[in-house]
């Protein structure tokens, strides 16, 4: 696996931690929820022969530091951070992959900084507000937040995994004793981010409403990726609501919400194919 190169970038109010590997056109990865750059190590390695892959730790997560205690997550601010990373690494336009809440940030990036984005693959964004009736899903988000406040992080995360069909996913369970050291470190960091996400990130990411009036222009090109194993899950309905509003078709991707980890090679091939299709389509 090619070694990633760690770096930092000073932006207003924060110092962003990011990693790069590979050579080629820039491909920016935006993590979802409590994730950080380390979650994408295998995916980045698979793509490093064709792209310069850049993954970062968003504000509130892991190794990125902020001047003040991070408060409520601001989707547009993190999107501006992503644009600053692109500018500092060649200026773009960059290919962008965002997953889950990171896909919401990617949609903000595409709307706010269209000249920085060559194409965006938005993987399973939690676009609750685009559902025909968002209230049941919003009630579920509020109930999860209340579980966190009442019973703590462990109970809330267990509820989240179960409700989203992820309770059987080994990538979300405790690490095995033979887990490689880097993977164990990533697991520990991401687990430590759960509290910030539950307290300050989950609701802003879920209630963010993409700028559909801007995104419908087709520049940059947007692919909405939905996991083949996410059929019947709430996240599928949210992705379908987004594509209906954008007037495009969904693109099936390997696996479920964590397909980039469970099938890194297949997921990388699907990403590469999607980016090439946006160039020639």
Description:
The protein is α/β, with parallel strands linked by helices. The chain has a single domain, classed as Rossmann fold (3-Layer(aba) Sandwich). Helices cover 45% and strands 18% of the residues. The protein contains 10 helices and 9 strands. Strands 1, 2, 3, 4, 5, 6, 7, 8 and 9 form a 9-stranded mixed β-sheet that branches. Helix 8 links the parallel strand 8 and strand 9. The protein is globular and about 45 Å long. 47% of the residues are buried. About 2% of the residues have low confidence.
Key structural traits:
globular; Rossmann fold; alpha/beta; 45% helix; AB_hydrolase_1; AB_hydrolase_fold; nine-stranded mixed sheet; 281 residues; single chain; 9 strands; AB_hydrolase
CATH class designation:
Alpha Beta
Tally the structural domains. 1
Q: Largest sheet, described in full?
A: 9 strands, mixed
Query: What's the name of the CATH homologous superfamily?
Result: Alpha/Beta hydrolase fold, catalytic domain
Shape: globular
Order of helices and strands: EEEHEEHEHEHHHHEHEHH
Which range best describes the helical content: under 10%, 10-25%, 25-40%, 40-55%, 55-70% or over 70%?
A: 40-55%
Question: What is the typical, i.e. mean, pLDDT?
Answer: 93
What is the radius of gyration? 17 Å
């Amino acid at each position: 696996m090619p070694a990633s190169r760690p770096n930092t970038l000073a932006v207003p109010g924060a110092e962003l931690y990011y990693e790069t590997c590979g050579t080629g056109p820039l491909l920016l990865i935006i993590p979802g929820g409590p994730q950080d750059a380390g979650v994408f190590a295998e995916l980045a390695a698979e793509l490093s022969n064709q792209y310069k892959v850049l993954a970062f730790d968003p504000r509130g997560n892991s190794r990125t530091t902020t001047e003040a205690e991070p408060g409520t997550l601001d989707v547009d601010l993190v999107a501006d951070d992503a644009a600053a990373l692109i500018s500092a690494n060649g200026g773009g336009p960059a290919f962008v992959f965002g997953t889950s809440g990171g896909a919401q940030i990617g949609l903000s990036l595409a709307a706010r900084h269209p000249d920085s984005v060559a194409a965006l693959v938005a993987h399973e964004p939690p676009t609750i507000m685009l559902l025909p009736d968002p209230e049941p899903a919003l009630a579920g988000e509020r109930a999860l937040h209340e579980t966190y406040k009442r019973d703590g992080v462990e109970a809330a995360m267990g509820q989240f995994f179960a409700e989203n069909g992820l309770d059987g996913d080994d990538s979300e369970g405790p690490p095995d004793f033979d887990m490689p050291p880097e993977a164990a470190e990533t697991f520990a960091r991401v687990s430590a981010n759960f509290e910030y996400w539950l307290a300050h990130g989950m609701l802003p990411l879920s209630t963010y409403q993409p700028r559909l009036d801007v995104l419908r222009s087709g520049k940059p090109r947007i692919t909405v990726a939905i996991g083949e194993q996410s059929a019947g899950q709430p996240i599928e309905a949210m992705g379908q609501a987004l594509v209906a509003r954008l007037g495009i078709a969904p693109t099936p991707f390997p696996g479920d919400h964590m397909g980039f980890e469970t099938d890194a090679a297949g997921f990388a091939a699907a990403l590469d194919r999607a980016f090439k299709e946006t160039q020639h389509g």
